[in-house]
Amino acid sequence: MSKIFQFGEKVEGYDIPVLNEREIRAGAGILFLMMFTTILEVLYKGNFVPLKFAVVIFLTDILIRVLVGPRFSPSLIIGRLIVRRQTPEYVGAKQKLFAWIIGIILALTMFILLVVVNSYSPITGIICLICLIFLFFESAFGICLGCVTYAWIYGKKAQYCPGEVCELKDRQPIQKTSWAQVFIVLVFIAYIYLVIVTFKETFSKKPFDLFGLEKKEVVK
C-alpha cells in the first residue's frame, strides 16, 4: 500500500525518490494548452464556461498528484505515453511536491472564486496569468519556478534539478551568450515594434477573397 501512495519513484543510482522530468513537461504542456485556449475564449467571447471546466480539471489533476501520487495523474499518464520513447530525465520529487502544492493553492482559489462564487475579478485574472507563466516555463524551458521558490524558502538547493541547474558549475561555451547576440535580440524587438507601428492600419484590413470562391458559393 505504501508503494502505491508514495510520492516519487525509487530508481537505482538515486538516493531519494525521483520523477521523470520529460513526462512532467509533457503534462505541463497539456495543461497549458487547456488553460490558454479557455482563457482566450473568455477574452474574445466572454464565455467563462470552458474556463470553469478547465479549472475543475486542473485542480483535480494537481490534487491527484499530491494526495494520491504522480503515477495516477491523468495529465502525467498522457505525458508518459507521449514521451515513452525518450530517455528519462530524473528530478527530485521533493521540490516538485512543493511546486504542486503551490499549484493546488492557486487552482483552489480559482475554483472558489470562479466556480463556487461564480465571480471574476483582477484576482482571478492574476492567478490565471501566474498559472500560465508556471506552466509555460515548465513545458517550454524545463524551468520549474515552484522549485526555485522551494530553494528560496528552505534556504537550501534542491537535489536533481532539471538540467542540473541546482549545481554550481561553469557554463559550457555553447551555453554562453555574447553581447552581439543580445544586441541582435534587442534589434529584433525594435524591428517588430516598427512593423506594428508602420503597418497597423494595413494589417487591420480584412483580406479579400483572391479567387472569388466565396461569391461562387453564394451564387450556388
Features:
64% helix; 220 residues; two-stranded antiparallel ribbon; mainly alpha
Outline the structure in words.
The protein is mainly α and 220 residues long. The chain has a domain at 18-168. It contains 8 helices and 2 strands. The protein has helices at residues 21-45, 49-68, 74-82, 93-116, 122-141, 145-154, 179-204, 213-219, and strands spanning 18-20, 90-92. The chain has a two-stranded antiparallel sheet.
Question: Briefly, what is this?
Answer:
The chain is an all-alpha fold and 220 residues long. Helices cover 64% and strands 3% of the residues.
Q: Give the total of beta strands.
A: 2
Report how far apart the termini are.
67 Å
Strand order of the largest sheet: 1-2
By DSSP (H or I, 4+ residues per run), the number of helices equals: 8
Q: What sort of overall outline do the alpha carbons produce when their principal axes are compared?
A: globular
Mean pLDDT: 86
Helix content: 55-70%
In N-to-C order, the SSE pattern is EHHHEHHHHH
- Give the quaternary arrangement of the chains: single chain
Topology:
Blueprint: E1 18-20, H1 21-45, H2 49-68, H3 74-82, E2 90-92, H4 93-116, H5 122-141, H6 145-154, H7 179-204, H8 213-219
Antiparallel strand pairs: 1-2
Helix pairs in contact: 1-2, 1-3, 1-5, 2-4, 4-5, 4-6
